[in-house]
Amino acid sequence: MAAWLARLSPGDAWYNMYSRLLRTKPVGSMAPGSDDLTELGEGSAAGLAKVLTTVDLVSLGVGSCVGTGMYVVAGLVAKAMAGPGVILSFIIAAVASILSGVCYAEFGVRVPKTTGSAYTYSYVTVGEFVAFFIGWNLILEYLIGTAAGASALSSMFDSLANHSISNYMITHLGTLRGLGKGEDTYPDLLALFIALLVTVIVALGVRNSVVFNNVLNAVNLVVWVFMIIAGLFFLSASNWEGGNFLPYGWSGVMQGAATCFYAFIGFDIIATTGEEAKNPNTSIPYAITASLVTCLTAYVSVSVILTLMVPYDLIDGSAPLMEMFAVHGFLWGKYTVAVGSIAGLTVSLLGSLFPMPRVIYAMSRDGLLFRFLSHVSAFTHTPTVACVVSGCFAALLALLVSLRDLIEMMSIGTLLAYTLVSVCVLLLRYQPDEQTDTHQFISEEHQDGVKHHHDDGAAPAKDDHILIGGSDPDGSASYHAGGTEGEGDDSDFHTGHPSLLKRLLGGHFYTLRLRLGLPDASARPTPATGRVVTRCTLLFFLTSFFLWSTVIFGVEQGEGARAVFSGLTATLMAGSLAKLLITILQQPQSARKLPYMAPCVPFVPAAAILVNSYLMLKLSSLTWARFTIWCFVGLLIYGCYGVWHSTLELNAREQQAHASSYQRYDDHLDDDTFSPDDSGRPEDREEKPYQGWSAPEERGYKYQEHQ
C-alpha cells in the first residue's frame, strides 16, 4: 500500500478519491432477486405481493404523520413558539413538505422496481457520498422519531394518570439538567420500556399490517371528527384577540414552521413500500401528495380548535388535546381523545421503527456501515442486529432527552435530507440522457442490445426505440425517446406545461424566451451543459444558506448600520441566486419522460431548497450543535470504514486485480487493450451512466490503470 501511494501522483490521488465519492450503484443490483434489500427474507416487505392500492399508501403515509404531529406537535409549538400562529406554521411547513414531496416522488420513479428510500435512489442516480449522507440523516429521522413516539406515549399515559408517573420519577430519580434549553427533565423510564417493547416486536418479525394500520387510522379519524364537533361548544374568540394570535411575532411563526416540519415527514414510508404497490409509478406520487394534503387539513383544524378552547400560554405541553377537554371539565372527551392518542401514536411509533432497520440493513449490506448490522435472522427473517442496535439507541434517547428537543433534532436532519433530494432532482433533469438511465426502464433482456448501439457511438435508431418501448406494457420504456422527434413549439418552454404558459403569457411567451435565451425544442443536454448546471446548482445550494444566515442574524436581529449592511449583502446574494437560476434555465433539459415528473423545474426544486434552508436556520443553536456532532460521527464512519469497505470498492479492486493479471499474461502479444491511451477506454466509459459531476473529463485527468 505504501509503495502504491508513493507512485501515485497528487492529481491521481485526488481523482481516485473524487471518483470514489461519486460512484453509483448499478441498477441491475436493485432489481428483484438481487443481492440487496429484497433478501430481507420471508417476513420483509420486499417479498410481498403487489397488493397495495393508492388508498392503502395514503393510509400508511397519513398514519405515520398524524399521530405525533396532531397529538403533540400542535400543542408544543402553540405553547412555546407561535401561539395561535401555529396555524400559519403548519401551512408554511406544508408548503415546504409539498415542494420536497414532489421532488421525492420524481426521485423515486427514476429507480423503478425498487423498494427503498432516498438512500437507495441517490446511490443509483447521484453517488455514494451523497447517498451515505442522506441515509445517515434518514437514520437520525427514524431514530429520533421512534424516541419521540415512545416519549409521546409516555406523556399520554402520564396525563391519564394525572401526572402521577412523572411526579414519582422526579421524586425518586431526580431530574437531569443540560439536555434541554435550561429546563429540567426527568429520566423517562416508561418511554424507555415502550421503545424496547416495540423493538422486540419488530425484531421478532411482526411486520406492520396494512389492515391493522387502516383500523387504527379509522379510529384516529373518528376521534378527529369528535374533537372538531365537541370543541365547537367550548370556543372563545378572546383567545385570539388583543395581539394574542401572534404573541411571538412572525419570527416565532417561522421557528414553529421549522418544528412543524416534523409533522409532515411520514411520506417517505410510502416510498419504502413502493414494491408492494400495484402500480408504484403512479401510486407513489399521488399517495405522497394526498397524504400531505390530508395531514395539513387535520393539523389546521385541530390547531384552530385547540387555540380557541385554551389560551396558548395555558396549553399542556405533553398531552395538549387531552387536557383541552379536561380544562373545561369534559372528562369523557379527554378519555375519548386518549383512545385516539393511543391509536395515532402507536402507528407513528411503528412507522418510525419499521423503516429504520431497513435503511441500516441496506447501508451495511452495501458496506457503508459495519457489515455485522446486515445479519438476517434465519428464524425471524428480519435484520435482527440492526433492529436491536437502533432500538436500544432510540430507547436511550427517549430516556434522557425531552420531547421538544427530540422533535427539533428530527426536523433538522429531515430538512437537510429532503433538501439534498431537491438538489439531486435538479441535477439529474439537466444531464445528458443518452447514457444516463436508459437501462433503468428497459428490461434486462434488451440491455445488451442497447449497449451495443451505444458502443458504436450512436444513439438507438427510431426502430430500436419502438422495440424498446414495446417491451414494457406500461409504455414507460420509451421515455428516453420521447420528445426527440416531431416536437412542435408546444415543447419549447421546459419549465412547465407549455400550453398553460402560452395562455398566461400570450404573445409575450416568445419574447420572454428570446430575452432569457431559453433553449428550443431541438436542444439536448451535453456534458458541458450538464457541468454548468452542476456548478450552478451547488452554488445555489450554498448561497441559499449564506443568504438566510445574513437575513436571520443580520437583518432580523441586527440594528442600525449592521442591519443596513446585512440588507445590502442579502440583496446582492438574492440577485446572485436569480442569476444562477436564469443560467440553469438557459441550459437544455433532458428529453427523458418519467411516469411522474416534478412540475416547473427548476423553480420547484429551487423553492424547496430556499424554504428548507430557511427553516433549518430557524432552529435553535443547541439543535445545530447536536446535529453537527451527528454528521461528524457519520463522516468519521464513512471516511474510516465505508469508503474502503464499500461493495463497489471491493468489486473494483477485484476487477482491477483480474485486469492486471490478464495484462501481465498477455503482455508479449503487444496487445494495447489495457493501454491508458487506447480509444477503447472512452468506449468503456460510455457504457456507464453519464454523471456530469463525476465524469473523468470534469477533472482533466486521464484514466490511469494501477499497475
Automatic annotation (TrEMBL):
- Give the way it sits in the membrane: Multi-pass membrane protein
What keyword terms does UniProt attach to this protein?
Membrane, Transmembrane, Transmembrane helix
Describe the location of the Cationic amino acid transporter C-terminal domain by residue ranges.
Answer: 596-646
Please provide, alphabetically and separated by semicolons, the GO molecular function terms listed in this UniProt record.
amino acid transmembrane transporter activity
For bias type Basic and acidic residues, the affected ranges are 678-689, 696-707
Q: Per the record's keyword annotation, is Coiled coil included, yes or no?
A: no
Task: Kindly list the places in or outside the cell where this protein is found, as annotated in its UniProt entry.
Answer: Membrane
Q: Cellular component terms, GO, for this chain's entry?
A: plasma membrane
- Region annotation Disordered: residue ranges? 661-707
**Keyword set includes Transmembrane helix:** yes
InterPro entries per the record? AA/rel_permease1, CAT_C
The portions of this protein that span the membrane are 57-78, 84-107, 189-206, 218-236, 248-271, 283-312, 332-355, 376-403, 409-428, 532-555, 561-582, 594-615, 627-644
Protein name stated in the entry: Cationic amino acid transporter C-terminal domain-containing protein
Q: What lineage is on file? A: Eukaryota, Metazoa, Chordata, Craniata, Vertebrata
